Protein: Xylose isomerase
Amino acid sequence: MRFRHPDGSTVHVAYCTNVHPAETLDGVLAQLRDHCEPVRKCLGRDRLGIGLWLAKGAARALISDPVALRKLRAELDRRGLEAVTLNGFPYEGFGAEEVKYRVYRPDWTDPVRLAHTTDLARLLTALLPDDVTEGTVSTLPLAWRTDFDEHAAATARAALTTLSGRLDALEELTGKSIRIALEPEPGCTVETTADAIGPLTALPGDRIGVCVDTCHLATSFEDPGTALAALEAAGVGIPKAQLSAALHAEEPRRPEVRDALAAFAEPRFLHQTRTLTPDGLRGTDDLGEALAGDALPDDAPWRAHFHVPLHAPPAPPLTSTLHVLQEALAHLVGGERPRTRHLEVETYTWQALPPGLRPRTRTQLVEGIAAELTLARDLLIGLGLKELP
Structure:
């Protein structure tokens, strides 16, 4: 979906296809047919933006076969879909029965990550709509926090510097500008937006900035206004933002609250859990760990990195952090100019929800994604943006 900002610029809204994980090009084409086009039709739109996730296998197939790349672009056009952003965070295996820590490999100390992200940038120049010259690729925030020393930091910085130069050359060759957005995430080397400032201001140019994920922002108890103002003061750009909501428990000490949280502790993804104490942020790597004994203080609210559907917060005694998303969105696009022009709804956890909340059919999933996009549309219209055909 496209929206006209009051300043005259276009803001793009997409939903991320990592909710339909596919490792191959055939799988990606099936996503477009079975999910993305039906979401568009459910919304009654002639055109729908998608944030494509291209795993290693699919990306390499497209890079090595120009005919296949042209076929993918033609399929997007034929099905009324467009891609201005790619999700380059997961490398492969995002549909596995257990993802957990694997999603952080390879990290930015591994040359494979640089090669893959370069591939994605090249592919995006060919997939951008004819009337769009700017694309974005979101990526992991350097690495998981463990074993990340000064040597690793220097290696990652060198890789991102190389990438920046490649993106400059790519624009000279194609006329398309691709920017990379590091996505702060709890537990990573760059956990918060504040953590991103040092590494990003050390890089040349402005090709690489931050992807603000509002679930991650909320999980780390960051205040949206303060966080985004600090990025602006440091000159760090926001090429992309992901619209998502975390799981919130106001009174985790109560047995019924802990029972409700336990239903969200599942084996596929990490659900980093945080609480804000007088001494600062405390946390665990996973929700199950937080619920085990006294691993986390329970006299203040907990938030868990679990992307809950935007339009359907969990039943009491739990809720979501949709209000953080709303506040962040107001700062991102509600001012005189948009701080970012690429917004992506990223609820990839539909099939990880407690069994009673999961969509049971493909149609139910399509309707759920359409409902999330409708909520995002209504929020943007409320901020003064105008929906375009």
User: Anything to note?
Assistant: The domain at 2-246+307-387 is CATH 3.20.20.150 (TIM Barrel). The chain is about 40% helix and 20% strand. The longest helix spans residues 150-174.
